[in-house]
Amino acid sequence: MVSPNSAPDAVADRRARLLAGAAITLGQLSEVLAPLGAMFAERGHSLYLVGGSVRDAILGRLGTDLDFTTDARPEVVTELMRGWADQLWDTGGLAFGTVSAAKDGQQLEITTFRADSYDRVSRNPEVTFGDTLEGDLIRRDFRVNAMAVRVLSDGQLEFVDPLNGIDDLLAGVLDTPALPADSFNDDPLRMLRAARFVAQLGFDVTPRVRDAIVDMADQIDRITAERVRAELDKLIGSEHPIDGINLMVETGLAERVIPEIPAMQLEIDEHHQHKDVYQHSLTVLQQAIDQEEGDPDLVLRWAALLHDIGKPDTKRNEEGGGVSFHHHEVVGAKMVRKRMKALKYPKNFTEEVARLVFLHLRFHGYGKGQWTDSAVRRYVTDADDLLDRLHKLVRADCTTRNKRRAAALRATYDELEERIAVLAAQEDLARVRPDLDGNAIMELLGLPPGPQVGAAWKYLKDLRLDRGPLTRDEAEAALIEWWKTQN
């Protein structure tokens, strides 16, 4: 693989190293690439690895998803893949010229050259097949995604970069093949993809791309909530989500898709340790990420970013110049539900994020250990399967620059976790239930199924949280006494 461009020595050396590394990476896939290239060549067609696959191979981050483009029409691609691929399926892409397959653990998407046109009302193109690689590449979103590698019949690889995407990659910038305004008019989702790639790659956008997003941010309204949600999740699950969020806020995109985030810029944090609640929330997000183990935890990340979105609506200026945000966790949880419903998030996901936002402030009532065992049980029970995430969120929410105060907060939360562990060893805190079930309640009180049984069950659960495990005799005696007060 040889770069087609010349450059000063340092840049040329780096380019050469990156392309050599990509050649080694792709060479390890020769058992897939070589026969694939040969099959297409035998039928008189060219085949190119393209887009994010080339970009990621150069950056040393290639996964198992490989994207190709070809001059062969979809029916020919399907014929070639049938019998060779381990799997071949139709995900609806055939209408857009895409054939999806799997081979030796690699996921392949092979798309016929495209020369689409857009109506600039929706983002749905009028699908038109093209005849040249250059025509296909110029319609792509960014130049770093418009590089290609030709897969030759003998398994050799040839780097093809007519739009100089390698220069943008070396500079760490995102720019469009055509004028940004034309590109974003064709597909406004590309503006949000810019923020996502900033978050994924650690790149920046060029000034002309940034200016175009500022001018055209309202065009994102043409995009469905589902597509916006998908991009937001990819962004927040990336390595540099704060950079992507900042770009969205600075360009006005966030105001169109999730306005609660830029609204936090107006609110001064009550600790006066951050420029505003927005900056505080970004710090909390980063500190939550730093506690992750394994894959990105989208529930935790969203909760960290949105935990204080209720502050603008609850801000009160107090005497003496202070500021309060009473019950912002309650308001914030409602706002999370409203915004995530609008973005078409699954109900379970939404409820998990909202519950973390609702609970994130409760620890601050712990003081210096004043909670009773009952309060500790309720903390665990209310968090339920989110307890580990709540631990991380609460710890991430400590952003004070006062080292003594920060150490004290950590020590206090360490103590709370130790108390939880002690109670968990004594009781099954993960499944706190009444000491009598519904059948026992009905038998003891002579009740048929109905609301009264539910009320009795709730009383016994609250009693269990307050007093811990009871014997059957103790539970029955308490229930009978309670029942007398209900009649």
Give a verbal description of the structure.
The chain has 487 residues and is an alpha+beta fold. It folds into four domains: 9-171, 2-Layer Sandwich (Beta Polymerase, domain 2), CATH 3.30.460.10; 172-257, Hydrophobic Seed Protein, CATH 1.10.110; 278-430, no CATH class; 433-485. Helix content is 53%, strand content 9%. It has helices at 9-27, 30-42, 52-59, 74-81, 133-137, 165-171, 180-186, 189-201, 207-216, 225-236, 241-251, 253-257, 260-263, 277-289, 298-306, 311-314, 328-342, 347-359, 373-383, 387-396, 403-426, 438-445, 451-467, 472-485, and strands at residues 47-50, 65-70, 87-89, 98-103, 106-112, 117-118, 125-126, 148-151, 157-160, 173-174, 204-205, 316-317, 323-324. The strands form four sheets. Strands 3-4-5-2-1-8-9 form a seven-stranded mixed beta sheet. Strands 6-7 form a two-stranded antiparallel ribbon. Strands 10-11 form a two-stranded parallel sheet. Helix 8 runs parallel beside helix 10 and helix 19 crosses helix 21.
Describe what is shown at a glance.
This protein has helices at residues 9-27, 30-42, 52-59, 74-81, 133-137, 165-171, 180-186, 189-201, 207-216, 225-236, 241-251, 253-257, 260-263, 277-289, 298-306, 311-314, 328-342, 347-359, 373-383, 387-396, 403-426, 438-445, 451-467, 472-485; strands at 47-50, 65-70, 87-89, 98-103, 106-112, 117-118, 125-126, 148-151, 157-160, 173-174, 204-205, 316-317, 323-324.
Poorly predicted tracts of residues: 1-6
Count every helix, treating DSSP H or I runs of 4 or more residues as helices: 24
Q: Mean pLDDT, nearest integer?
A: 87
CATH architectural arrangement of the largest domain: 2-Layer Sandwich
Please list the strands of the largest sheet in the order they lie side by side. 3-4-5-2-1-8-9
Radius of gyration, whole Å: 29 Å
Secondary structure tally: strands: 13
Structurally, how many domains make up the residues?
A: 4
Q: Strand count, sense and closure of the main sheet? A: 7 strands, mixed
The CATH superfamily name of the largest domain is Beta Polymerase, domain 2
Shape: elongated
How much helical structure, as a percent, in the residues?
A: 40-55%
Gap between N and C termini: 86 Å
CATH fold-type name of the largest domain:
Beta Polymerase, domain 2
